[in-house]
Amino acid sequence: MEIQGEYFETMELQGREYFEDLVMRSFFQDFKLSSGAYSKESCKMHDIVHDFAQFLTKNECLIVGEVHGGQRIVSGHDARHLRLMQSQDKTDFSFFPQLRSFLCKNIKIPPYLFNHLKQVRLLSLGNLENIPEEIGNLIHLRYLNVSGNFSLKELPDTVCNLYNLQTLGIQRLYSLCGLPEGIHKLKNLMHLLNRVTAEDF
């Protein structure tokens, strides 16, 4: 376990070095700073880099919903990354069998969603009153963010089956009563993001 911890620490340090190198080359801009040891909390891609990245990933990254007053058409069986910007009740998620990341906020999640996210690595969900137990089937998940779901009172025990999970975001969950008893099973968990969440679990 100590060796595994050293591996993740080295990997994170290497990632920070890559990031700082890209900062020096002006790939990023508009930094927001935090008071922590690692002061850069968020940033944006430079506009030119952003446009080029969009061009390279146009068949892999999809945004569904209103974007700058228009509609981005859902197409491409090879899509790897999907973001829902508004309620899409008729979206057929079986059309995206290879999704690696799925982000949505302020929309209602269809109950069958987790049947079509078997390969997902990153999952960020909003507007939840509860999380279906089927989330435990997403065994490849590395990053789970349910922050800001004010009505969410508990996480299902099946979250503890996500043995590849490295980051769990539960910030601003004012109604959360506690964490599942088996949370210690998440041996690969490195980051528990719980700012402005009840501390008396």
TrEMBL record:
- Which UniProt keywords are given for this protein, alphabetically ordered? ATP-binding, Nucleotide-binding, Plant defense, Repeat
Which InterPro entries does its entry note? LRR_dom_sf, LRR_R13L4/SHOC2-like, WHD_DRP
Where the record annotates domain Disease resistance protein winged helix, the positions are 8-53
Q: Name one Pfam family in it.
A: LRR_14
Biological-process GO terms, alphabetical: defense response
Source superkingdom:
Eukaryota
Q: Where is the Disease resistance R13L4/SHOC-2-like LRR domain?
A: 99-193
Protein's name according to its UniProt entry: Uncharacterized protein
Q: What is the lineage of its organism?
A: Eukaryota, Viridiplantae, Streptophyta, Embryophyta, Tracheophyta
